TrEMBL record:
Keywords noted in UniProt: Fatty acid biosynthesis, Fatty acid metabolism, Lipid biosynthesis, Lipid metabolism, NADP, Oxidoreductase, Transit peptide
Gene3D superfamilies: Medium-chain alcohol dehydrogenases, catalytic domain, NAD(P)-binding Rossmann-like Domain
Catalytic activity, as annotated: a 2,3-saturated acyl-[ACP] + NADP(+) = a (2E)-enoyl-[ACP] + NADPH + H(+)
Record-annotated Enoyl reductase (ER) domain positions: 10-324
GO MF: enoyl-[acyl-carrier-protein] reductase (NADPH) activity
Species: Rhodosalinus sediminis
Protein's name according to its UniProt entry: enoyl-[acyl-carrier-protein] reductase
Length: 334
């Protein structure tokens, strides 16, 4: 087997390496999965840099939290899965062409699903769904505002909100993404070159300050969103694209009672009930089948070209996700 590893924190394209090891054997209750597709998310890159999570991960470590693979061996006591089953491995350390994990952490992939889209189904679309349904009691006609709206989470927020009847103000930095967001169902797109009075701009298109803001950026962007929501509104920080700690003005925090909270999908999974997880996965599978969940892919790299892949993923101005492929899928790779 081959897997990615980093022994120190730093720039992903400098500290990541691919190493080989004998194929692991599944123990009782475990399955072995040959990963066909592995996803690269901003959180993966920040983890390698040591800037993500409550604490930096223990080293050495293997990144990766999203994948699609095929079961090729099962341990004693496993009856739910069999060799040949397509699964979506859950957990961390998934940038590997072969993984062994508890059978409970290998939910079946939706039947007939495209492997790439299935691998991308859980993290970003799941975050979008939960941001819209677990934070505030949104009703049809309500407005929300989000930054980094052309990210994968942002585009899923737009699509899911449209189906809920919730209207979206979407802040981006590039004019060339406006058309795609409007096609997704965005109600308004604000292109912010850094000198926009966002509070006035958001209120202008929404008619009044929204109750909820979704922040993927952190740093000063949190303060801008806090100023843009109404009194007693809420800002949910779910990403750290700026690499900076979130800041909030005292006027909004103290005198307008704006609430700022975080959201981390891994923590939700840690505390969610089995019923809540089934509901989420059922929703995501339905939306994948309906074509509501569809993620653009810009390039695919075999695991051996890991450093090229993460360098590409870190570039600005991309038009889609960057994926890693296992050996069985390398024929279609970049």
């Amino acid at each position: 087997m081959k897997y990615a590893i980093f022994r120190r924190h730093g720039r992903p394209e400098e500290v990541l390496e691919v190493v080989e090891a004998p194929d692991p054997r599944p123990g009782p209750g475990e399955v072995r999965v040959r990963n066909r597709v592995m996803t690269i998310n901003p959180a993966d890159l920040l983890t390698v840099e040591g800037r993500y999570g409550a604490e930096p991960v223990a080293l050495p470590a293997t990144p990766g939290v999203g994948a699609y693979g095929i079961v090729d061996a099962v341990g004693d006591g496993v009856t739910r899965l069999a060799p040949g089953d397509a699964v979506l491995p859950a957990g961390q350390g998934l940038w590997a062409d072969t993984v062994v994990l508890d059978a409970r952490m290998a939910p079946r992939a939706p039947e007939g699903a495209d492997p790439e889209q299935a691998a991308l189904m859980r993290a970003n679309p799941g975050t979008a769904r939960l941001l819209l349904t677990t934070i505030a009691d949104l009703a049809p006609g309500d407005w929300i505002v989000q930054n980094a709206a052309n990210s994968n989470v942002g585009r899923m927020v737009i699509r899911f909100a449209r189906e809920m009847g919730v209207r979206t103000v979407n802040i981006v930095r590039r004019e060339d993404v406006r058309a795609a967001l409007m096609a997704d169902g965005a109600d308004a797109v604000i292109v912010d070159g850094g000198d926009t009075d966002l509070a006035s701009a958001v209120a202008g298109v929404a008619g009044a300050p929204p109750r909820l803001a979704l922040d993927a950026v952190g740093g000063g962007a949190t303060a801008e969103l806090a100023a843009a929501v109404g009194a007693h509104g809420r800002v949910v920080v779910y990403g750290l694209l700026s690499g900076e700690d979130s800041r909030v003005g005292a006027r909004d925090l103290v005198f307008r009672d704006v609430r700022v909270q975080g959201f981390w999908l891994a923590e939700w999974y840690r505390t969610a009930s089995p019923e809540a997880m089934r509901d989420l996965h059922g929703f995501l599978a339905r939306k994948l089948a309906e074509g509501v969940i569809h993620t653009d892919v810009e390039a695919r790299y075999p695991l051996d070209r890991l450093r090229d892949a993460v360098a590409h993923a870190a570039r600005g101005g991309r038009a889609g996700k960057i994926l890693l492929t296992g050996e069985s899928a390398c024929a279609t790779s970049t």
